[in-house]
Amino acid sequence: MAANNLDNTKAEVFSTMVQKELLDSMTIAPLIEDVSEMAIEGVNVVSVPKLSSFTTAERAFGAAGVDNTPLTDSVDQIPLSQNPIVKWNYDAADAMQSSINYQLKAAERAASAHVRNSNSKLIAGMIAASNFSAGLAGGDITEDAILAMRAHLLKNEGDINLMTLLIPVDQETAMLKIPNFIRSDYRGLGAPIVTGQIGTVYGVKVVITNSSALPSDQAIMVEKTGYAYAVQRQAKYAEQPNLDYGTDGVKAVVDTTWGHGPLQVEEGLVPVAGQSALIATMK
After folding, report:
1. Which one of 86, 129, 146, 270 has the fewest CB atoms closer than 10 angstroms to its CB?
2. Averaging pLDDT over each range in 95-99, 151-155, 239-243, which range is the top one?
3. What is the extent of the structural domain holding 183?
4. Beta bridge partners of 50
């Protein structure tokens, strides 16, 4: 029996659960742009348009204003090259004798694996796309490093309301000791921290990650419009009988198709090929 002959109700329920697990667990994706609406069928690269800017000029009373230089346009390209899959078998006895819903829990674990993979890929991509480093290799994060990264993004027209400082677990203690760091639980919001945000520093959100893709002596500051991801095919669950594991044995799969990459490439005060001026690192 083919995988696509799986009962629709079960396939839809499991796929919905997998997608919810992905959305609930993602900590990196919400910090950057989602351009999934451009990842339509029939394309393998998303082209994100970008326009130059106008400037204003004073017009003398009674005189015609000066025409602006026409806008120019270009694109940043995001290849839809990520095609991760989690595939596993389970024995008929596992489903029958387990005290938990084995199939459902296995699908949840598969979704978690996809989350870890996407977090790692996004972090590695942002590090590679950064065109500024505070240059403090091997040290703890400091106010000077934070201010240097923040200044770099602001000078390149970054919006402070869209900036995030991403730190590894090993830098949390150093961050908590910075006098101008404001912990989220001191702000009186009364809401649990579910996105990884632990506070703010100089107006920039601070998010912690346990992804091994971010080395213990590094940190990333990104403005939301400096990096993007696009999901072409949402995570889906499918299964088919696998008689090698008994009459009720099953082979199951959760896969997806997506891509990621920098935006505002070769822009800013010091344009660098393949890099975004809206991403800075401490490394």
Report:
1. 270
2. 151-155
3. 3-51+76-282
4. 74
